[in-house]
Amino acid sequence: MTTRAPAPARTVFPALGTTAALLVTDPSALPVATAALRDELATVDLTCSRFRPDSELTRVNLGAGTSLTVSAYFAEALQVALRAARITDGAVDPTVGGAVIALGYDCTFASVRPDDARPLPVSRPAPGWQRIVFDPHTRRLRLPPHTRLDLGTTAKALAADRAARGAAAATGSGVLVSLGGDLATAGPTPEGGWRIALADDHARPLTEPGPTVAVTGGALATSGIRVRTWRRDGRTLHHIVDPATGEPAAPVWRTVTVAAATCVDANTASTAAIVLGDRALDWLLGTALPVRLVGLGGDVVRLGDWPLDSRVPAQGGRP
User: What is the pLDDT of residues 177-186, one digit of tens each?
Assistant: First the structure.
């Protein structure tokens, strides 16, 4: 007689302006794992939110042009962002904060005006990550004057990685953490892997069979231009900004999903691909990561070891 392992237990709740989902292979571990996730989310929000007047990021941005000391958590988040900028040759650049604000994404997305008649300001390139002066040993930081950091691309992914590792260490259970569809895993994997449904919008209920993948370790991240959109001055805008222009990245890929060892690396690559557009394929091939790109018309391009699509019934849901 064989005993089937219990189905993973899960909890879902709003966080960081999106949805946090937590799955554990051991149902008894859910309360402790949930507490670890909530602690991590509270820390990253207080440290890296550009929408909170009391966040450390707000203090850093207000102090642009002066030298100040940042916390250990902020230092880690900044180093992750600077590494992302370096390995993408600036396609993912934390100094796009001013450009994102100028486009109208100056508050939580739920509060962004869906159709804003105000004229758009003249776009300008981001100041550039190379101009940031930071000493990781002393944690002294100096931003160029008038520079605004936006750590959203990498800080959420970092929180997913940290939360998954922390929850797994605290419980010994297998853990999957998903923040807005960007997910990290740690600890033992359920039989057959974590089954993940792919879609343009992680929060929309599945109404028809869709592609799925089995994640047996590491992380998965999806970036896209279809969900966080708004109109301003008659133009449809989205939240992924090209640092070279200060404008939303030219629409080439509807979504890009990347598998990597960490959510930070997966999210860095998926965001860079959206920004790079037509140049993304050559750059992604150089990373050797498994990637699934969906064009504006729904055509799918697979790179690396990304498998052919398998499908599950609509009731299968998301992680």
Answer: 999 989 999 9
